[in-house]
Amino acid sequence: MRDSERLPGRPEGALPGQDGHHGGGLGAGAPWPAAGDGGRPGAAPGPAAGRPAAGGDPATPGAAPGAFLVDSFRALQAVRPAPDRLHSATHEEIRSGATTDVYFVKTYEVLRHLGALDTPVTADIFANRPGILCGVEEALQLLQGLPVAVWAVDEGRPVEAGQVVMRIQGPYGAFGLYETALLGMLASATGWATAARRIKDVAGDAPVICFGARHVHPAVAPVMERAALVGGMDGASCILGARLAGRDPAGTLPHAVMLIAGDTLVVAQAADRVFPPEERRVVLVDTFQDEAVEAVRVAAALGRRLAAVRLDTPSERGGVTPGLVREVKARLAQAGFGHVQVIVSGGITPDRIPPLREAGADAFGVGSYVSAAPPVDMTMDIKEVAGRPVAKRGRIPGAAPDPRLRRRL
Prior knowledge:
Elements: E1 30-31, E2 53-54, H1 73-77, H2 91-96, H3 102-113, E3 120-127, E4 131-132, H4 136-143, E5 149-152, E6 158-159, E7 164-171, H5 172-175, H6 179-203, E8 208-210, H7 221-230, E9 235-236, H8 239-244, H9 255-261, H10 264-274, E10 281-284, H11 291-302, E11 306-311, H12 322-334, E12 341-345, H13 353-359, E13 363-366, H14 368-371, E14 378-385, E15 388-389, E16 406-407
Parallel strand pairs: 8-9, 8-13, 10-11, 11-12, 12-13
Antiparallel strand pairs: 1-2, 3-7, 3-14, 4-6, 5-7, 5-16, 14-15
């Protein structure tokens, strides 16, 4: 380990929590946090109705007094979710360790018994296949305030199989319980960002908007669409996903509004009246009649205010083909509306983009290709224990210097 990679002001092998200072962390010994309690240092513990108290266990190193952490068998028994709740984890439940694999609770019990839970370690997280790294910022939020030092590769960078993407130094008891959550944050987001980069590479300068939120659980939809933006896509329709990335959400109009109003032109004219001036007028034209005829009809009514039409023809009608795009573009141009762009959505994959681009498609809405992308599996290995290089069989002991890692915490 290079001197520049060690915690400043600490002797060889000394890590956070080894100089008499314990900050961050969580501990058992408090009731299950009520809604709004952070479950972290500084959060006031509050019992929830019907939750058994989890107390009497020694505090986890670095834990704030009274903070709740699922780090013992006794605390484990307190995790009794109500049957009338949503099934996704709250931020408090993630921070408390309730989403971890139970074998880390068993690990804490054993190490606590051995007096070794506060052992200083260096842990490396590495990718199991190439991809575009994402999830780092969320992982850092989970580790924020704990007595650890963290180095990481920047989000949006390509990573190789076996490359270390994050390094954590600190007492094991301060962060070990979060291994499951950290790996999941990095693996899922990196998988989505990798798929987004492939789509964008094929699309070139044609804008690509992520329409994938409807294909995943709403709890992770913002994570997925933010990852798509990190991967290089040009917009995201999920409101929270776009805002997390510092963007405005992007999208058009669905078939639902067309069917309820009963006429594409009626919808287009209403949208033109109620949308703010800066909102591009983009109208879906495949609901009721021939797409080319509908496109020209809408363009004639809105004129220069119509920025684009969207084609989302269902598979039951053959989907959006290069021939359809070519015809819509030609008929718009012949009618004097060559400024109107054509946006294509519906089952778009990298293989479908080149012929659609050649036919004249100007932009794409992509959903399931990104949302269904497999995760880039991540692994966490302990590489140093109290400054001594270690590794499981088959791997190299020690935390090797890597200039791609940047100090973040």
